[in-house]
Amino acid sequence: MKSIKYICFLFLIILLNCDQKSNNETAIKIKISDVLNIEKLDGRLLLIFADNDKTEPRFQVSEGLNAQPIFGMNVEGVKPAETIYFDQKAFGFPYETLQDLKPGDYYVQVLLHVYETFNLSNGKQVKLPMDNGEGQQWKTSPGNLYSTPFKITVPEGGIKDLNITLDQVIPEIEKPKDTEWIRHITMKSELLSKFWGRDMYLGAHVLLPKGFNEHLEAKYPLMVFQGHFPSDFGGFRTTPPDENMKPEYSARFGVEGYNIIQQQEAFDFYKRWNEPDFPRFLIIEIQHPTPYYDDSYAVNSESQGPYGDALTYELVPYIEKMFRGQGEGWSRFLYGGSTGGWEALAVQVKYPDEYNGCFAACPDPIDFSAYCLTNIYEDENAYYSKSSHKIIEVPGHRDYLGHVSSTVKESNHLELVLGDKSRSGGQFDIWEATYSPQGEDGYPKRLWDKRTGDINHEVAEFWKENYDLRYIMERDWDKLGDRLKGKIHIYCGDMDNYYLNNAVYLMEDFLESTTDPYYDGEVDYGDRAEHCWNGDQENPNYISRLRYNSMYVPKIMKRILESAPKDADLTSWRYK
Asked: I want to staple 111 with a disulfide (CB 3.0 to 4.6 A). Which of 68, 146, 205, 273 is the partner?
């Protein structure tokens, strides 16, 4: 009897070995070229397919109707020439596994998004992608490895055998150069360096006012433009549009020659900046990418660190000292759209005395009971509307006519492919990295299960108490009301692509009907306007979105004249 059991056991081992050999023989095998002189690496390995060769597959990854297949898995300690067997069951989008991949011709590419190990000040260790000057973009991040795309045919029954070599390294990005008008600064943040356990830096592009070098007695008010990572100061150009530029069509706006329009608007702003009646301000576009996203959301966070304090108490005073800013709360203003819209409002609310007004356009959800189309406090699931007898997926993106191109589930599943533990660099993951408490593993706690959409209401309550701006303002209005009076301005299109107008409606209800003292600000909507509408009722969205740097100036000047202290300097910077 024992001999029979022993023979059966040996037979089982042989079967398992044969199965493993068969899997390896038909697997997707990936290795790093030994000519790259690369040491051991950790990161997220991404396998990407594209059904066309318009651009490299890595540049065709999206969640919309043009989505191309992508699959992801973590790797640790990978060395050159070492074979990596890509997991056939690795999670993918829009196909969940490789076995589901539709047969046909594809261009295939692999990319390794490299992770760095951080030893946090609280003793936890995490592996995350460090920004390398690109603004936390996995497709273009210097140091990431990728393969040269090539064409394959996926037959019925799936891929049988595929060998791919990571033979390219994304090069470093050249830093922008200073000009007569624009300066670029970088400073080490002591607060952030302590949190992350390594040197961390903040940066900014500074637009200087006309006469800066001639009027040495002048001290200037400061306009802080919040938003996604800027590679340089945008929307400012000292020359007319390039004469030989070929017009490009903007599918988003349905406008021919939008590239030329952008250059013309940038040149027009330069001319306006130099007019005698234009106020002399400092304008800064700040750089504060984190290992989770292209910017920090400008607030303190358990998983990202004290970015709010670092920006307000380190970077802003540093710039004001270097470029002769007034250096007082009455002279500082915040503005921006989308992410920048949320940041402008959040920073004003959390640092009410350090700034004198915010202009928040199309802000990310400012009331989490309208977290896009999800009420994180009452809904049980973020992906499906509650129903007993049918399933309806929650939409994620629409156009101004209501046509839906993606869902909340799809957005989150793509993020899960790009990185687990909130490491995708995507929109929902950065909200989580900013708003969530930190878990025992050092990563942000999930608001909802990324696969199923089931909501964790304990995490939702943490979000509410710390980052739900409408709730916080209502809860603390007896302390904030007088300090925020006249400072809150919010703008949103009523057909915002991401349904962000829903939260603005709720904020407006509170501000207009329940605030005492009255908030004395402004909430306005653009009829049928999509994302990034910023309060311009006269021009189409494709024009007004290019005028952020100048359109709020009249409102800022009015605010300064009404609210500046009696001893404030209102003259040195108002020269012709």
From this structure: 146
The one-letter amino acid at 477: W
What are the pLDDT digits (tens) for 222-270?
999 999 999 999 999 999 999 999 999 998 888 999 999 999 999 999 9
Beta strand pairing call for 300-301 and 305-306 = antiparallel
Cα–Cα distance, 436 to 430 (Å, whole number): 10
pTM above 0.85, yes or no: yes
Residues in CB range of 309: below 8 A, 6 or more apart: 191, 300
Pairing of strands 145-146, 104-119: antiparallel
Report which of 112, 87, 90, 132 is spatially closest to residue 33, judged by C-alpha positions: 112
Label residue 94 by pLDDT band (50, 70, 90): very high
For residue 209, give the nearest of 353, 336, 67, 325 by alpha carbon.
Answer: 325
- Report the distance separating Cα 294 and Cα 541, nearest Å: 24
Domain boundaries, the chain: 27-169, 182-367+468-563, 370-464
Residue 9 predicted with pLDDT over 60: no
Residue 472 CA to residue 546 CA, distance in Å, equals: 32
DSSP string, 322-369: HTTB--SGGGEEEEEETHHHHHHHHHHHHSTTT-S-EEEESPSPSSGG
Phi then psi for residue 466, to 5 deg, are -115, -25
Give me the mean pLDDT over the 340-363 stretch.
98
Give dist(CA 197, CA 503) in Å, integer: 37
> Between the CA of residue 438 and those of 148, 197, 367, 474, what are the distances in Å?
38, 17, 22, 26
Count CB-CB contacts under 10 A for residue 503: 26
Smallest CA-to-CA distance from 560 within 357, 259, 270 is with: 357
Region class of 547: left (phi > 0), else alpha (psi between -120 and 50), else beta: alpha
- Amino acid type, 319: I
pLDDT of 414-441, one tens digit each? 999 999 999 999 999 999 999 999 999 9
CATH architecture, range 182-367+468-563: 3-Layer(aba) Sandwich (3.40)
Cβ-contact 296, 314 below 8 angstroms = no
Q: How confident is the model at residue 34 (pLDDT cuts 50, 70, 90)?
A: confident
Segment 358-365 shows an average pLDDT of 98
527 burial class (0-12, 13-18, 19+ CB within 10 angstroms)? exposed
d(CA 4, CA 9): 9
